[in-house]
Design goal:
mainly alpha; 78% helix; single chain
């Protein structure tokens, strides 16, 4: 079991390092006139879907019942379409550091959703963690409003809001689909989720993709897109089911704290952003909030006598029960 937990921790660290690098690289890719946010999302989804299905041809095939395929389609809506699609759009409107700081709220959002849906109690210590983390997000918003002109600050606030929405969507995916994820190999899960996502994105973006003259796109931009597709999407999403399978949702999402650290150093190194004391204070407050919530969660879990491996929530099982034989 300890070895499996180590696999889960390593997988989440690797995925979040890739996502941390993806924020500034996505910003650089979208700096080219030929690449907008929706095209980059389409590259991610379609490219990852092709990669997962191509590799799956050489692996043992798993049979997936119709009911689970429907669940995977819902998981794709929350975990890919409404998460990464909205996140890339948010990155296009705000700075890479701002976007990556917002991702550190994921453990807190996960705890709130788990409390609402799974009826897990929120202690005073957890509540204090939420207040501390929220104050960090508020400081980030205020600093974005104070910087630049009114139009730019409003656009940045919209980008921060979209990034926050993507975290809510992803937290919902983490809470609701842990049991489904534990039943299948990561390649099986991801090939179906990305296929469903590609089917939704492709009709809206295919004409624009076909009309783009990629020979005119600079080589460094193509490299950025390649990393976003294969590093920040294919590799990261291959790691995530491993972390979800062996770690509790709050512990797994805690590794989102790696993203702003990686993104901040990368963005400053590539001269995409500046790193002032307000952003540093925002990171520290969010980190403190996440730490408080995580420690409180750990104490609650230590009081249990059996592992927290629970079936899919009752409402979902009832909703899709009619598809089972």
């Amino acid at each position: 079991m300890e070895r499996n937990k180590l696999k889960g921790h390593a997988a989440m660290i690797a995925a979040n390092i890739a996502w941390g690098l993806m924020a500034p690289l996505s910003k650089m890719a979208m700096g080219d006139p030929a690449v907008n946010s929706w095209m980059l999302v389409s590259f991610r989804v379609i490219g990852a879907a092709l990669a997962f299905w191509l590799i799956s041809l050489f692996l043992k095939r798993e049979r997936v019942p119709k009911a689970d395929l429907i669940l995977m389609a819902v998981a794709a809506l929350l975990g890919i379409i409404m998460n990464q699609g909205v996140f890339i759009l948010g990155v296009s409107l705000t700075s890479p550091i701002n976007a990556s700081i917002v991702t550190t709220t994921l453990p807190i959002v996960t705890m709130i959703i788990a409390a609402m849906y799974l009826k897990e109690p929120i202690t005073w210590v957890k509540f204090a963690g939420i207040v501390v983390g929220a104050s960090g997000a508020l400081l980030l918003i205020l600093s974005s409003t104070a910087a630049g002109g009114e139009g730019n600050s409003n656009q940045s606030l919209m980008g921060i809001g979209l990034c926050l929405f993507s975290q809510v969507s992803y937290a919902t995916y983490f809470v609701l689909f842990k049991n489904l994820i534990s039943r299948y190999h990561p390649f099986t899960l991801m090939k179906w989720m990305f296929l469903f996502s590609a089917i939704i994105y492709l009709p809206f973006n295919l004409p624009q993709i076909l009309a783009t003259d990629f020979s005119a796109v600079p080589t460094n931009i193509l490299y950025d897109i390649a990393f976003v597709v294969f590093g920040g999407t294919f590799f990261a999403y291959l790691m995530i089911p491993i972390g979800q399978k062996f770690l509790r949702p709050t512990v797994a999402t805690m590794y989102n704290n790696v993203q702003p650290v990686v993104a901040s150093f990368a963005a400053v190194f590539w001269q995409l952003d500046t790193f002032g004391w307000r952003k540093l204070m925002a990171i520290m407050l969010v980190f403190c909030g996440v730490y408080i919530v995580t420690k409180s969660k750990a104490r609650d879990e230590n009081a249990k006598t059996e592992p927290d491996v629970r079936p899919a929530p009752v409402p979902i099982r009832r909703a899709f029960g009619r598809f089972r034989n």
